[in-house]
């Protein structure tokens, strides 16, 4: 894609909210530091306001085996504000639902 005669690359990156300890023990998870999100002038920015079509400089980490990439931060140079549409984010409340506890049922298979 080209914008203003410049080649622009498009990708998706993410970052886990929590991480397991070095031995992989999930019982001792701890929160990851969130990715830094700023405007072009350095003003902090809520990452939940960055919508589709925004343009940013990004910083990311690549594992040595190149198996994954993790977002470290982004500097937004063109912000298209995300505004959720109420009709997509809300559900009609209902009394018709079921909660299955596999441990109480004595099985690992809830189906």
In short:
By secondary structure, this protein is mainly beta.
Descriptive tags:
3-stranded mixed sheet; two-stranded antiparallel sheet; 111 residues; mainly beta; 2 helices; extended
Please give a structural write-up.
- With 111 residues, the protein is mainly β.
- The protein has one domain (2-83).
- The protein is built from two helices and seven strands, in the order E-E-E-E-E-E-E-H-H.
- The chain has helices spanning 86-89, 102-105; strands at residues 2-3, 6-7, 18-19, 30-31, 36-39, 55-62, 69-78.
- Strand 1 and strand 2 (6-7) form a beta hairpin.
- The longest helix is centred in the C-terminal third of the chain and has 4 residues, at 86-89.
- The protein is extended.
List the helices and strands and how they pair.
Blueprint: E1 2-3, E2 6-7, E3 18-19, E4 30-31, E5 36-39, E6 55-62, E7 69-78, H1 86-89, H2 102-105
Parallel strand pairs: 5-7
Antiparallel strand pairs: 1-2, 3-4, 6-7
Give the tally of structural domains: 1
Roughly what percent helix?
Answer: under 10%
- Molecular shape: extended
If you average the pLDDT, what whole number results? 80
Strand order of the largest sheet: 5-7-6
| Rg from Cα | 20 Å
Q: Give the low-confidence spans.
A: none
**H-E string:** EEEEEEEHH
Number of helix segments? Answer: 2
Strand content range: 25-35%
| Largest beta-sheet details | 3 strands, mixed
Structural class: mainly beta
């Amino acid at each position: 894609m080209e914008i203003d005669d410049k080649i622009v690359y498009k990708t998706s990156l993410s970052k886990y909210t929590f991480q397991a300890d070095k031995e992989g023990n999930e019982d001792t998870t701890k929160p990851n530091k969130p990715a830094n999100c700023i405007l072009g002038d350095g003003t902090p920015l809520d990452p939940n306001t960055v919508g589709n079509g925004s343009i940013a400089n990004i910083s990311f980490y690549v594992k040595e085996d190149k198996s994954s990439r993790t977002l470290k931060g982004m500097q937004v140079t063109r912000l298209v504000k995300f505004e959720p549409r109420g009709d997509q984010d809300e559900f009609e409340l209902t009394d018709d639902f079921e909660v299955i506890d596999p441990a109480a049922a004595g099985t690992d298979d809830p189906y």
